[in-house]
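Students often ask why we bother encoding 3D structure as a string. The short answer is that it lets us treat folding as translation between two languages. Here is a chain of 389 residues written in the first language.
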Amino acid sequence: MFRARRVILLIAPTRAFDRGLLQGIAQYANERGPWTFYREPPHYHAIDWKKKVTDRLSTGQVDGIIMREPERIEEIIRRRIPGICAPVTKRTIEGFINIIIDNDAVGTLGAEHLLQCGFRHFAYCGLEDIYWSAKRGEAFQKRIAEAGFACCLYEPLKGKDMQALWEKEEPHLVAWLQSLPKPVGIMACNDDRSQHVLDACHVARIHVPSEVAILGVDDDEFICRLANPALSSICLNAEKLGYRAAQLLDRVMAGEACHETTIEGLPTHVVARSSTDILLVEDREVSEAIRFIRRNADRPLQVDDVAEAIALSRRSLQQRFSKAIGRSVHSQILRERVNRITQLLVETDLTVAQIAEKMCVSSAKQLDRVFTRFQGTTPTAYRLRHCVK
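And here it is in the second language, the structure alphabet:
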């Protein structure tokens, strides 16, 4: 008779990325289980959790482990228990299958979003001694430099206790924000950090987004939607990573040879909210035209529709568009529609044909051609890469 897999979860579902990992793990376990999970109980239970974990590790009551980067990682490595790890302070940890994010892609996507908003001043706010924070900052700075602009980097105060440190750091962050040229687009390494930047802006009476636009990472709705203004964020789709991690761990626990040492995830898209709802285009009519295109991205706009909406001739609109942002009106329409298609591919279960119908595209084949031209891959391939199924 098949025995349930016994897996210790050393992941606290306190943030969106961790919750996404756990959702993917749970989906796999429900499909292929049964799995029995040992996880940390609520804080109000007077249980010595660390001792219980150690006991289970020492008595062979565990088949596998999925974790972030716990204090007792050396003990886990020493016992050679099959495991998946999502490191924090370094890229990978030897002896485990590692869940990693393409942080270069994250930083580049963040830069692209703020560049499209029209900013000429940029900054990055990260965390001290965190591998993925540093890599995202490097990629962000590189893409901004390629566009011909400079990027200011925030230097955090050093300290182990971030909660205690925040009282000292907030004035430091406020002073940094006040020193930046305005208007400025700021990418934060994650949503927690973007909340820090927003709080500091409130203290400094700096308006968001007209003076400072803020973009985070993880799309944690508990942070982003409760903020005022709501925070824009890059979605990582951790659920797919969790599903893949559970799949690989299952194979290793079954005794299969596994030569895969990393599971890499890519950012999917930017969830744009109020904190980056700004378009810094000096030509007011062009700015209004782009806003109109974004609001109507679900329908097949023509250049004449846009010209009529802002009361300009087609010829004048085309000339001013090219001068202001270096793109044609038609190119901007296609760009915004592909952004909307990307969102539907990741966030819904609609088929490509259904998305084509919703977007008023003549056929799935036509949607495929347009999407591939902009994204470099087909809609189906994009969905397979970024979604659990």
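Translate back mentally: The longest helix spans residues 329-347. Keep this in mind for the problem set.
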